[in-house]
Amino acid sequence: SAVISQKPSRDICQRGTSLTIQCQVDSQVTMMFWYRQQPGQSLTLIATANQGSEATYESGFVIDKFPISRPNLTFSTLTVSNMSPEDSSIYLCSVTEGGIGEPQHFGDGTRLSIL
Amino acid sequence: AQSVTQLDSHVSVSEGTPVLLRCNYSSSYSPSLFWYVQHPNKGLQLLLKYTSAATLVKGINGFEAEFKKSETSFHLTKPSAHMSDAAEYFCVVSDRSGGYNKLIFGAGTRLAVHP
């Protein structure tokens, strides 16, 4: 399965600032996904990122807060903008190598704390 | 709409005893179901998947799950728990309604293994 690397692995940021998280895959994939995992909670999909098109955001998430780039088939970034303590979470990227109904493979996540 | 309910938020077992983590799903069509494990400070690892083939699915590390359509269940079992099995486990259903591979996560079950 694909190997996914996320940077940074963790960070502590000041409120009002922005942080860009990088996701690198060792093979070309069509679809990449970004999830948020709030403390003690399950995963919630933020958006789906396809190369060459705008990201598709889930209900409750907007592009101004979570802009996403997908410049090629192996790389994506998620920016968390104008951060507040409520943004303290683990952010994970994932990819799927198969068709619809196949599992996704996840990176180790970025652990973000906002002071 | 697809949904997943994990019936236990916490399960505690002794090392060497069986593990049972319960999951019920709701799906308007034949689902794809997965179990993922998340160890502390790590990303998610796929344990096993059901994609309409054999109803008894074997996964990694001795885990298996049985798909029971009549009961809409996909419980995860292991005959003998090991200390290294202590982690968070997520039951996941694939939502194909959007034409892509959106995953719906259960709330998670935290497994504790005692000596």
Commentary on this structure:
The complex is a heterodimer of chains A (115) and B (115). Chain A has strands spanning 4-7, 10-13, 19-25, 31-37, 43-50, 56-57, 68-72, 75-80, 89-96, 104-106, 110-114. Chain A has 115 residues and is mainly beta. In chain A, strands 2, 4, 5, 6, 9, 10 and 11 form a 7-stranded mixed beta sheet that branches. Chain A has a 4-stranded antiparallel beta sheet with strand order 1-3-8-7, with no helix packed on it. In chain A, β4 (31-37) and β5 (43-50) form a beta hairpin. Chain B is 0% helix and 54% strand. Chain B has strands at 3-6, 10-14, 19-21, 23-26, 33-38, 44-50, 56-58, 64-68, 73-78, 87-95, 102-105, 109-114. In chain B, strands 2, 5, 6, 10, 11 and 12 form a 6-stranded mixed beta sheet that branches. A 4-stranded antiparallel beta sheet of chain B has the order 3-9-8-7, with no helix packed on it. A two-stranded antiparallel ribbon of chain B has the order 1-4. In chain B, β7 (56-58) and β8 (64-68) form a beta hairpin. Chain A binds chain B through residues 1, 4, 31, 33, 41-45, 48, 92, 94, 96, 99-109, 111, and chain B through 32, 34, 36, 41-46, 49, 51, 90, 94, 96, 99-103, 105-108.
Largest sheet features of chain A: 7 strands, mixed
Number of separate helices of chain A: 0
**Most extensive interface, residues per chain?**
A-B, 25 and 23 residues
Between the first and last Cα atoms of chain A, what is the distance in angstroms?
36 Å
Number of helices of chain B: 0
* Form type of chain B: globular
The overall strand count of chain B is 12
Shape of chain A: globular
Q: What gyration radius of chain B follows from the Cα positions, in whole Å? A: 14 Å
Uncertain spans of chain A, ≥5 residues at pLDDT below 50? none
Topology order of chain A in helix (H) and strand (E) letters: EEEEEEEEEEE
**Secondary-structure element string of chain B:** EEEEEEEEEEEE
Our measurement of the CA-to-CA distance between the termini of chain B, rounded to an integer number of angstroms, reads 41 Å
Mean of all residue-level pLDDT scores of chain A: 93
Strand fraction band of chain B?
Answer: over 45%
Query: Percentage of helical residues of chain A?
Result: under 10%
Oligomeric status? heterodimer
For the biggest sheet of chain B, the summary is: 6 strands, mixed
